[in-house]
Amino acid sequence: MNDDQLLRYSRHILLDEIGIEGQQRALAASALVIGAGGLGSPAALYLASAGIGRIVLVDDDVVDLTNLQRQILHTSERIGQPKAESGRAALLAINPDIEVVALRERAGDARLAELVGQASVVLDCSDNFATRHAVNRACVAQRVPLVSGAVIRFDGQISVFDPRRADSPCYSCLFPQDQRFQDAACSSMGVFAPLVGVIGAMQAAEALKLVMQVGQSLAGRLLLLDGRGMEWTSIGVARNAGCPVCGCEAA
Asked: What is the rounded distance in angstroms from the CA atom of residue 212 to the CA atom of residue 231?
């Protein structure tokens, strides 16, 4: 690291658990962020400020006035712009020394396999089950850790799925891809703005812990947040040996 980087990241370096070695791991890492909306905004902002060396933002949508209540990557001046490009501008404004790749696309299975294969960690900040399962399949196949978050109304959840660990479940162990789940959209159900900040920031924290090799991740645990009472519930999640994605049948 050069002198500017040592100064910029000095508060991380002061932490014994991180130090120079941990910060260098972050600078050498690449994070794939699927979705530049409510969750992707705080997650990507914290990854950029913390010094993840390469951030790839994937989103096929454009900035809309209704997004600005919670999607803090974007501004009124950038309404109508692609969210990926708007997000790139915001991240580089915070940290011009990192690389930010903006992809305005809805990545299919083949494209996800390519993008995940280039990542150190993946953050699923999408808003539908089809995308979540596609991202999960790619992460399992490429053995790349996945940090998954979701928020609707006053409820949030977050977990880590780490296919590098033999005991870690995948997203499909928790929400089987052959079962039908009803997607709940913010446009019809609403969402309490600060909760996407809470869950998105936690996604960034889990991603940074993984790449810096600090602490214990949420692998094997699902955290649920009731925003009305500000109460957390932790649920243990076991790997399903019969999971068609990560279990024995898929091997």
From this structure: 29
